[in-house]
Amino acid sequence: MSGDYPHLHPSARRVADEDAQSRIRRIRTDRWIAYARAEAVLAALEDLLSFPKRMRMPNLLLVGSTNNGKTMIVEKFRRAHPGIAAAETDDGVALLPVVRMQMPPGPDEGRFFGAILDALGMPFSPRDRIATKQDTAVRVMRAMGARLLVIDELHNLLSGTSMQQRRLLNLLRWLGNELQIPLVGVGTAEALRAIRSDDQLVNRFEPLALPLWTDDDEYLRLLSTLEAVLPLRKPSHLADSAMVARILSASEGVLGEIIAIVIRAAVRAVDTGAEMISPRMIEGAGFIRPSERRRVAV
Ligand SMILES: Nc1ncnc2c1ncn2[C@@H]1O[C@H](COP(=O)(O)OP(=O)(O)OP(=O)(O)O)[C@@H](O)[C@H]1O
Ligand SMILES: [Mg+2]
Prior knowledge:
By secondary structure, the protein is an alpha/beta fold. It has helices spanning 10-13, 20-28, 36-49, 70-80, 109-120, 130-143, 162-179, 189-196, 199-202, 217-229, 241-251, 255-271, 279-284, 290-297; strands spanning 59-64, 98-102, 148-152, 183-187, 205-210. The chain has two domains: 10-30 and 213-297; 36-210, P-loop containing nucleotide triphosphate hydrolases (Rossmann fold), CATH 3.40.50.300. The protein is elongated.
């Protein structure tokens, strides 16, 4: 059985005749879905990367709710600028243009530099002195030609004491100056609050928001893209008003939820042989809204 599947993207069309099991696996596989806001952030990151070295480098703060696609964007960016292994460079030194670390919870200077060394793939002992880790981190970042440092989960700053927070904010300022590379902070609105508590940093970090999704053209385009890449044999018309409203309400506008809901419904559509997502599948699959889940958790 082979159809034309005009509702599908060519890549999905090619696999639409595969059996249920293999299509379910494809539906559940991680993929990058492009949307305008993400493209704008990626362009801003490219711009930072090509910025000439100068005394004060511009920094960026990507701010958005949890599960709303922040890490996916910085990971996409990092993959676009991959490192080169030591064995493959002329001088035998590995290259890593984009370094992405995560601010550790309950952060102090030692853990902070430990997280950078982890990101660089540099072994270290937790017993190493802070100064040793700091020197190694800075030296290796220079040697590897690091051109941009992404600090994900920046809101973890706030889990430290106010003294620790101040020390780490100072450290961020110092690191940017020392390496003369742009820093990209990534986190929730709490991260913005932490940065704003430092008068000097607040001027240096330009906030870039990744807002929750609302019922607009961009959201309709996202649903159409999702529909086109999931290999269901019949059109689901996700961008029709009944679907649009249900998915938005169940997801509360959180990108990760929108995608998870559609994927779960698509798996059901294959499982049941319906081959299209119906409004009932969105509601009937027993989703717990993010805010209700939080209520259950506390
Ligand atoms: N561009 C995208 N394409 C496909 N899936 C995406 C995209 N962006 C986000 N997702 C989905 O949403 C989920 C959450 O995204 P991500 O981990 O980037 O959120 P986050 O904003 O970093 O959340 P947190 O603040 O909790 O770290 C991902 O696991 C993925 O399933
Ligand atoms: Mg994240």
